[in-house]
Amino acid sequence: MAQEVRGVIAPGKDEPVRIETVVVPDPGPGEAVVRIQACGVCHTDLHYKQGGISDDFPFLLGHEAAGVVESVGDGVTDVGPGDFVILNWRAVCGTCRACLRGRPWYCFDTHNAKQKMTLASTGQELSPALGIGAFAEKTLVAAGQCTKVDPAVSAQVAGLLGCGVMAGIGAAINTGDVGRGDSVAVIGCGGVGDAAIAGSRLAGAAKIIAVDIDDRKLETARSMGATHTVNSRESDPVEAIRDLTGGFGADVVIEAVGRPETYRQAFYARDLAGTVVLVGVPTPEMKLELPLLDVFGRGGSLKSSWYGDCLPSRDFPMLIDLHLQGRLDLAAFVTETIQLDEVEKAFERMHRGDVLRSVVVL
Which CDD domains is this protein grouped with (predicted)? Predict the structure, then answer.
């Protein structure tokens, strides 16, 4: 029987969010209903609200979430009622060319729930953010979007792996292949950039250089594992990174902003044959110009990181275990906990750079 729950809706471009009653249908084949316990406020939700991702309003926002499976549909065997799960937005298909070649983290046919949640007041279909829609008491997802982890972890920190923290850690470990003794530079020290710093420290990087224009963010980056900081308002970040790496540049440079100017900085701040990882998300109108001779002459790798090139079934449990062992401080990413009716104010604080992560607790 369908259920009615409270959820945070973005009704139109740049309009304030509001709480509405949402109808959550019973799970169909391959689907699951999850009772949400906590959900992080991510920049991607703000992009949805601003119309920067699509114009399929109204959106049911929220995607960085953890909770408990309440019910599952026919054919679901990997999770069941009572399982504590982190939600992910790349449920792999297992049959596309990437999956069949043993690279499921590149899956080209990820899927979401086929049924739609609706507004109780009008019956209008909702577009769930990243196929999840977790600023709600319960949500409907594809069962493959549920990843079981150790229930000993707090939902407030576990949910962060659902997007930003996983994207950053994965950009360092999975995409950038940061190794022991490497030098790493991270440009942009928000949640994703700080996670890339934490991931680089986990991987054994010897030197981790944090770059940002906000001294508050640089201070936080140090607490996450940065060994050096550069305020790029005050000095040329390319020259600063070279100075800190013997004049050569960093082995891996992770761009966590998603702008042409910061990407160029990353490109020229890497060592010859070094690696650039783009994990910051650009907007559709942005263009990049680089001398083709420089692309050829500097060698190395220019990579994009999709969700940290993660495989949720592999990476989520591992990172939760590291957290429970005291080796990865996920709690350090949580600036504040809030209620559903405080999401709009949380967006404002995020925009000002006042928080690393606000987390909605239900």
Answer: Zn_ADH_class_III
